[in-house]
């Protein structure tokens, strides 16, 4: 059977009208993206979270126009996933010359409509694949397929293939922060008018309170840590990630309030310092080099500080302003003081 790569049109839940890469075979089309490692989007058909691929089938249909932009269209969540994973691929390729999760050119399959009323998404390193739930009554049944979520989940694969930060304690917080950092960078990179870049995570998911996490002010959710303390290794990794997220925000944007992507960002610190940011692209380059060259499975926050200072020295020089501001940003989240 002959497969031909062909651009289709999509109307996603959160990304709006977009182009997506598809394949034509015979008289039909499928969500197979050869331009991004052959990424295939599957409908899990509500297989249980314990076995998400049980009833899965690839999306296929007679025309090459997918979704209508509503939660109830099964294809709309698939459009979000196809677009989000393609943008994540392009971000890593064009920014760091990384070809997919393992830098081997192979795409990671995605499964949407996993389980019932699942307000979550997961990366699974056993299949190098990702699972996305449909959301629940708590978020207006909005599928959990937004750009920052797709970028977050695929970045768990990149972390597993590089530093392999253990998913508990402080290293687990760093693992989660890495996914929030690059999930947000993917959102900026995509420059999608329906979902502009910001340092909020899950702001397009109709969550009570408006978001899942904030990098600029993590503790605004009443749970996440904005500042390191000696208990950081004992809380859930999605809460200790706040320290790394807050570091990244301050390193990128500096202190003081800003509006970014139409949302309020709050640059307060743990030490009342004021300083400029180095910009998000340089901050991401520092984090990526630290992740891929210096961090290991047991790296904690003190080790992440050392790793990023070394990365900044490599990229910008030992006496650079960039390295100096990285040290200021860590001090501002109570690491290394
Ligand atoms: N959404 C979560 C994450 O990607 C799922 C989990 O906690 N395993 O981290
Ligand atoms: Zn995660
Ligand atoms: Ca976001």
Automatic annotation (TrEMBL):
Domain of life, per lineage: Bacteria
Domain Peptidase M4 C-terminal: 163-335
Start and end residues of each Peptidase M4 domain: 7-159
Bias (Polar residues): 45-54, 61-74
Region described as Disordered: spans on this chain: 45-74
Family assignment from sequence similarity: Belongs to the peptidase M4 family.
The protein's name in its UniProt record: M4 family metallopeptidase
Species for this entry: Streptomyces lavenduligriseus
Species classification: Bacteria, Bacillati, Actinomycetota, Actinomycetes, Kitasatosporales
Complete-protein stretch covered: 217 to 553 of 717
